[in-house]
Amino acid sequence: MEKKQDLECSSAEVVDNSSNDKFQELLQTLEQVIWDGVPLVKYAGCWLQVNHLRPVLSSQKHFKAKDTDIILSTMPKSGTTWLKALTFSIANRNVFPIDQSPLLTSNPHMLVSFLELNVYWKQDNPNLENIPSPRIFSTHMHFKLLPDSIRESNCKIIYICRNPLDQFVSLIHFLSQKNFGKDPDPIAIDEAFDMYRQGIHAFGPFWDHILGYWNAYLENPRKVLFLKYEDLKEDITSQVKKIAEFMGFPFSQEEEEQGLIDQISGLCSFETLSNLAVNNTGNMEGRVKPNLFFRKGQVGDWTNYLTPAMTERIKKLMDSKFEGSGLRFKT
Ligand code: A3P
């Protein structure tokens, strides 16, 4: 692996990413590795798939957050799909009755777009002004890579993370099924594990991703809501209430008495979403099958895949990386 320059992060990045030459020049300065057959580059200390770098830079340059925006931030395989479904349903509960929810006919990823994987993937500077408020966008970017306007406006950030052991196992399954399960040479679990421990995976290192949002939450809990997948599994009702309050759309007593929280939780549950026809047919923008986002939806599945030695190594790594942060995961 050739060691190259690791840039300091600045979302006031001076790179003109509309200029291919400058972009290529930037690429030349970055450390690169191959991960599951895909080139990753290390930008500002964060590992990104090389084809995600340009949209990340475009979003940093052009995205203008509004105070009413809600940004969902996650690492892949941490509960993004679930959080999209829940926040969309909470924000739109007065627009669509539950039995007419767009979630019944659209995958959650088609209702809430990723900044870097959808919005700025297609265009360098799309017009997002006419999207009705509250605009909900999602991202896998590290906190420090977010466009400045997200940090500087009064928009809200909801972060969900997951026990890294389960996140890794979910990621491995996702990778083995991408390319419609026809990848002739999917990455072996041992190889992926070694890279994961070094923080080398898309949007890694996982500890920096999690700690970036954890520290931002500690600094300003009115700006950042920090959620854990395991807590949603344990008590979805209280978490849905918390999310709605944070978004600025608390449930009224009447809504609670009508059972609206349960209805939204039920609609967004793994059982409901994973059984919908829309999440079992076709493919999403020619890239992946929608059912790839619904595997088991359980806590603790890592025990079925990781050896005791692997588990011990990740636990030790977590202990050292999260030590003193006040952040703990139930394992
Ligand atoms: P598993 O692979 O462990 O089953 P993401 O949405 O960030 O890509 O994360 C995908 C993981 O969340 C998968 O985990 C998937 O099964 C799980 N998941 C998706 N929708 C869910 C839901 N509504 N409730 C709980 N888990 C869900």
Task: Describe this protein with a few key phrases.
single chain; about 325 residues; Rossmann fold; 3-stranded antiparallel sheet; 15 helices; about 10% strand; globular; binds adenosine-3'-5'-diphosphate
Task: Give the topology.
Layout: H1 20-29, E1 32-35, E2 38-43, E3 46-49, H2 50-62, E4 70-74, H3 80-91, H4 108-111, E5 113-114, H5 115-122, E6 136-139, H6 148-152, E7 156-161, H7 164-177, H8 189-197, H9 206-219, E8 224-228, H10 229-234, H11 236-247, H12 253-257, H13 260-267, H14 270-275, H15 308-322
Parallel strand pairs: 4-6, 4-7, 5-6, 7-8
Antiparallel strand pairs: 1-2, 2-3
The protein binds adenosine-3'-5'-diphosphate (A3P).
The site of adenosine-3'-5'-diphosphate (A3P) has 21 residues, from helix 3, helix 7 and helix 14.
GO molecular function, one term: sulfotransferase activity
Family: Belongs to the sulfotransferase 1 family.
Keywords: Transferase
